[in-house]
Amino acid sequence: MADVEIEGLEKAMRKFSKIAGQSKKDMKEAIKKNAEAIEQDQKRSVAQRSGATEGSISIEYEDDGLTADIRPRGSEGFRRHWIEFGTVNHGAQPFMIPSYEKNKDNYVKDANDVLRNLK
Asked: Does a structural domain hold residue 4?
């Protein structure tokens, strides 16, 4: 049997344990800020017909606020995949993926800033 030693593991574990306090709050704020930016971009860029799909776009937070699900929901949200990817009779008009792509660098930067500030 082989013994494995991971250099820096204790330091990493100390950093992870600190997430429970202020850092977790800071991460939630970073996620909320970026989720709201993605939501607004989706609302601005979704193809308009009646406005129902735009009105159905919302954020749901999961994992105690550490995960954000941003998309059209409810009875009007079911059309989202038709709009995003198109149909045989209607070309794609992507709005979810481009909104994510536009905002992902800011999200990663904000999340990294929180992690870098762990002491």
From this structure: no
Q: Which domain holds residue 36?
A: 22-116
**Secondary structure E strands in 31-77:** 57-62, 67-72
What is the count of structural domains for the chain? 1
Residue-wise pLDDT for 75-107, tens only, equals: 878 888 888 899 999 899 999 999 999 999 999
Would you say residue 5 lies in a domain? no
- pLDDT tens sequence across 12-55: 667 666 666 778 889 899 999 999 999 999 999 888 777 788 88
